[in-house]
Amino acid sequence: MIIELDFERLSGQGYLTPASSAGQLVEEYRVIKRRLLKRSRNSSGITGSYPNPVLVTSALPKEGKTFTAFNLAISLAMERDISVLLVDADLAKRSLSVLTRLERARGVYDLLADEKLDPAEVIVETNVPKLLLIPAGMVDTHATELLSSLRMRHIVQNLAAPHSGRIVLMDSAPVLSTSQGMALYDLAAQILFVVEEGKTAQQAIMDAISQFDEDKAVGLILNKVSRFHNAGYSSYYGEY
Asked: Which domain covers residue 233, as residue numbers?
């Protein structure tokens, strides 16, 4: 399956597109991806081998994790030697699928519900070179149990195979808002945690981060920083 992302619509909503080459937001995501790639290569010791998957999440809904996941995927796809697989693993909200107009396409849920379905059958090619998508799928019931299953583990291991030159980004459910929030974190090699300035309580942040394994690399992204007037996100600013 191949889709044409509507760059004009996405740009109008504040998202990056392949035509985005300058500006505050472009530079911020360059900073984020450089830190991500540097940490990946230092960890593996081999260029082109990335600790996968990278989960993008937050403590609570509406903090900007889908915005972050999509923009980071676009920025990474602009690299010469990297391909990106962007997965909508937030089966509760399916925001990424709605954004890309794939809410009626088969995806993660269908893969988990039907063991005969091959992951290649739900991967969607886009008009962004080296950017692939997997939608959330037609979600019904028992999503949390399916995300926690051995089937999901095997699928993720297959998609994030070492030395593929591919980074797998997963837009995951918020940690504190649904039981799905913790279903995938033991599979993650790295976690990008989005925090909205002035909204997310410090206790909520600590409660969410305390649930991550100590060996996980957790990067913090501060969202909607007031000192920036022309962008929705600050640069990647630290590790927990």
From this structure: 21-197+210-239
